[in-house]
Amino acid sequence: MNTVTELQTKMQQVVSVVKSTTPLAPSITNTVTINFVANTQLAVGGSAAMIYLPDEGITLAQMANSFYLNSGTLEPFYTETFPATAKAMHEQHKNWVLDPVALGIGTMRTNLMHEFKSYKPTIIKGNASEIIALASLWELIHHQDSTVKGVDTTDTVDAARQAAVALAQYTSGAVVVSGTDDLVTDGQQVIMSHGGSPMMGLITGAGCSLGGVINVYATSTDPLTAALTGVQIYNLAGQRAAELANGPASFQTAFIDALYHATAEEIAHNPFDVEAI
């Protein structure tokens, strides 16, 4: 189990590395939020590359140290692009981030998420309902009733704790459950990160872009540190942006600025709690 001080040191290190190296952090993501995802990745120091085609996924898998796959708005050709990219990252033992958006609303989406089980995403990020649904689909927990409401959760973060731990233990990676307080686990410890703002629920793409920013950090550190650093900077930036915003539109602008200006020390010292499982 990592101590708070150890986690803070690792977070400061990866923030500094990312800002000095501008790592390539490609994504196949939600077309509704693609612009916001790219802008947040740029704000924290990454290099965004948004692609769709199978051959491009395989090519960038050779070039990048981490990849972000988000199932928010699926197209038929993603049945080829997603598995090909995930397989390439898995075979090269590289990090890749899965956001199982709206799992449960269609057969194609469910089948893709089931196929991803064998490619073991190193980081999984979702809301509580999505995390419960994925752990149930992969038969890692006893079936737990959970329903999605579009892309929104109907479950609490606490209700998804068992599912998150089971997923992390299966993948030997990290899992993020986003909510009022965000849960991060590597299957050995549970970390609760605090901050953020209710305004984050009033803009499109807060969750999707979190996955994109976690992906930036995953290019340069281990899954747990990447996941926690992404959550920490989001909670810090969300709180700061809310203090300046007059509404959702100004909040989104202030949020990107807050991501850009956040220092490594500020991110690492955003409030969080650690407990052993």
Automatic annotation (TrEMBL):
- The question of whether Nucleotide-binding is a record keyword is answered with yes
What InterPro entries does this protein's entry cite? Answer: Hyethyz_kinase, Ribokinase-like
Question: What EC numbers are recorded for this enzyme?
Answer: 2.7.1.50
Pathway(s) per entry: Cofactor biosynthesis; thiamine diphosphate biosynthesis; 4-methyl-5-(2-phosphoethyl)-thiazole from 5-(2-hydroxyethyl)-4-methylthiazole: step 1/1
- Signal peptide coordinates: none
Q: Which Gene3D superfamilies match?
A: 3.40.1190.20
Protein residues bound to ATP: 125, 178
User: Top enzyme class of this protein?
Assistant: transferase
Function, in words: Catalyzes the phosphorylation of the hydroxyl group of 4-methyl-5-beta-hydroxyethylthiazole (THZ).
The protein in question is named Hydroxyethylthiazole kinase
Q: What is the lineage of its organism?
A: Bacteria, Bacillati, Bacillota, Bacilli, Lactobacillales
